[in-house]
Amino acid sequence: MSKQIALLRGINVSGTNKIPMARLREILTERGYANVVTYVASGNIVFDDPGTAPEKTAMSIELAISEEFGLQIPVIVRTRDEILELIESNPLPDATAEPAKFLAVFLSAVPRDTWFQTDDPEKYEPDQYVVGDRVVYVWCPNGLGRSKLAANFANKKLGFTATARNWNTVLKLRELTEEH
């Protein structure tokens, strides 16, 4: 059976939007999701593909979180194949040497006329970014905390949901889709 991966945006950060992973696994299992596994408390969930489109699965998980915790948490869902393609298509292979400084910024929609499509990437050097299919690959060799580029993906300039995972997490999510 194939897998889906749900990526929750902005949970368990600095004491806000608290969601216990054990309870989240229970809720999703109660709602018919099978073999639910979470990875770290930042909102990474792997489960058997329920046979619905990822966008519909995302809405279902958002509703479950809203009903259980009273929180409006954006959720992006990708299939196992989409995660594999994201890894295979990595346009910044040198960045994988520093996986904690290399991000996959998952996008809920295909970007159109966003700042990162129209801006000059050189203005962010030494940081680099490349726009992919509903993902932006971001490498911040001097660290994420000092990056003007990484901070831009955290603000509301996009007009749609974006949630970032470092490369270590992306690879772990791939691994989890193979284990369970």
Automatic annotation (TrEMBL):
Family matches, as InterPro entries: DUF1697
> Which protein are we looking at?
DUF1697 domain-containing protein
